[in-house]
């Protein structure tokens, strides 16, 4: 039911109109009255108003001014102005304010009834439109996320994104990933101790990832079967440009993007472990640009790899599909290796990498990339498996390498320092003396 307010400074007119509307069975209206603009405004502050029928000339405030004031509180209120005068200025102003009708009092009640009927029709139409718009908005809010989830699952299942996006079903889906530009996906797998909190923890991991993800990435996310978290990511043009450099090849720049993402994933893993008490492993796909039809195969490979690693007790993995060789993939195939065997295999990988890269980068980050671990987890894993710190092993190998080179070659001490990973000869001297009790030159002299 709509509410009609009749306003005029002449009580006889107001009361007469109220009775006429109440007696007219064609209307289902709650009819209210006010004898001044001020009284009408007080009512507007206390109740919803749908239709205003007001005299245009009143003391203190005109009907035109009253329309403005009423619309401030009730923007959808329809207005009809009555006057005893036919004045062009009033008509022009009334039209400018989008007043529904401007009626001379002398024209009779039937014209007023008709004007109110038209206002009711407009209110009905506006209400229908609002309901339809709200339904459409709710449909989008509910349907679009589901369609995006469906789309991501189809991509992970092996369907080509280019073909999917041209389907009418996905026309209304604003998918942020452009198929003609570089993109990749991540999967995340949680190691849960509290299965009953799985849904809550999944949402917390999603939030953590999105909190750390810079605005330079476009992202779409979902949850796959087996509670696997899934993110489709696309670096923006500016970010790609920053990593590409002047002379870097496309492959080199993409490797830099992947390394950057691994740093972000390290933050997410550490936060999830510290704040949520949950270990998360991640898998990173290759660049999908030009090869969207391989997304399904890549998903299966990463999923299998993370599942196999989890079965072997590895809980904070960062597996980069571009760095996984077929031999390693076969070694970690589900069920082919026991936990103890796996530990020996990974420790051998770590130590072999250190020995082969002694003169280069043997940081935790570099070694972690080789064995697909979170750097912090790598350090703990090595200590638990061997009883020694990884840093101690690296220092031991550097010392052994320096001693061997001093004994077997005539290389200068600064060259030896470089070969065993020291950029500064003075730091090499300090390190050597701390370990051996004598300086490198004194040690070499004793071997002469």
From TrEMBL:
Modification type 4-aspartylphosphate: residues: 55
Entries under InterPro entries matching the protein: CheY-like_superfamily, Homeodomain-like_sf, HTH_AraC, HTH_AraC-typ_CS, Sig_transdc_resp-reg_receiver, Tscrpt_reg_AraC-type_HTH
Residue span, Response regulatory domain: 3-120
Pfam family membership, one: Response_reg
Residue stretches in coiled coil: none
Keyword list, A-Z: DNA-binding, Phosphoprotein, Transcription, Transcription regulation
Keyword Transcription: yes
Domain HTH araC/xylS-type stretches: 348-446
Residue intervals passing through the bilayer: none
Protein name listed in UniProt: AraC family transcriptional regulator
């Amino acid at each position: 039911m709509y509410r009609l307010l009749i306003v005029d400074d002449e009580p006889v007119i107001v009361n007469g109109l109220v009775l006429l509307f109440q007696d007219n069975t064609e209307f289902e209206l709650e009819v209210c009255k006010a004898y001044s603009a001020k009284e009408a405004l007080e009512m507007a502050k206390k109740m919803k108003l749908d239709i205003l029928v007001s005299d245009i000339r009143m003391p203190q405030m005109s009907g035109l001014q009253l329309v403005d004031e009423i619309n401030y509180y009730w923007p959808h209120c329809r207005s009809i102005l009555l006057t005893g005068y036919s004045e062009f200025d009033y008509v022009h102003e009334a039209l400018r304010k989008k007043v529904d009708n401007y009626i001379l009092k002398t024209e009779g009640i039937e014209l007023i009834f008709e004007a109110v009927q038209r206002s009711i029709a407009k209110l009905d139409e506006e209400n229908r439109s609002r309901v339809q718009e709200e339904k459409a908005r709710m449909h989008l809010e509910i349907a679009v996320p589901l369609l995006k989830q469906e789309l991501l699952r189809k991509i992970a299942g092996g369907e080509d994104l280019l073909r999917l996006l041209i389907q009418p079903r996905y026309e209304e889906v604003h998918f942020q990933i452009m198929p003609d530009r570089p993109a990749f996906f991540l999967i995340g797998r949680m190691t849960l101790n509290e299965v009953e909190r799985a849904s809550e923890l999944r949402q917390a991991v999603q939030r953590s990832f999105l909190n750390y993800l810079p605005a330079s990435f476009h992202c779409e996310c979902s949850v796959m079967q087996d509670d696997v978290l899934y993110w489709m990511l696309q670096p923006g043009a500016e970010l790609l440009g920053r990593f590409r450099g002047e002379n870097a090849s496309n492959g080199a720049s993409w490797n830099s993007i992947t390394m950057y993402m691994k740093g972000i994933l390290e933050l997410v893993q550490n936060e999830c472990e510290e704040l949520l008490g949950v270990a998360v492993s991640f898998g990173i796909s290759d660049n999908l640009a030009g090869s969207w039809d391989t997304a399904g195969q890549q998903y299966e490979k990463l999923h299998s790899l993370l599942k196999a690693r989890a079965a072997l007790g590895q809980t904070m993995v960062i597996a980069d599909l571009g760095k996984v060789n077929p031999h390693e993939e076969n070694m970690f195939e589900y069920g082919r290796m026991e936990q103890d065997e796996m530990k020996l295999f990974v420790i051998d990988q770590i130590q072999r990498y250190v020995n082969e890269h002694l003169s280069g980068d043997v940081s935790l980050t570099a070694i972690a990339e080789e064995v697909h671990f979170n750097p912090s987890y790598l350090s703990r894993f090595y200590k638990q498996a061997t009883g020694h710190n990884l840093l101690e092993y690296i220092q031991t190998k550097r010392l052994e390498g320096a001693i061997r080179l001093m004994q077997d070659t005539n290389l200068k001490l600064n060259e030896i320092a470089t070969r065993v990973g020291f950029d500064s000869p003075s730091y090499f001297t300090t390190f050597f003396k701390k370990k051996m009790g004598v300086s490198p030159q004194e040690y070499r002299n004793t071997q002469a």
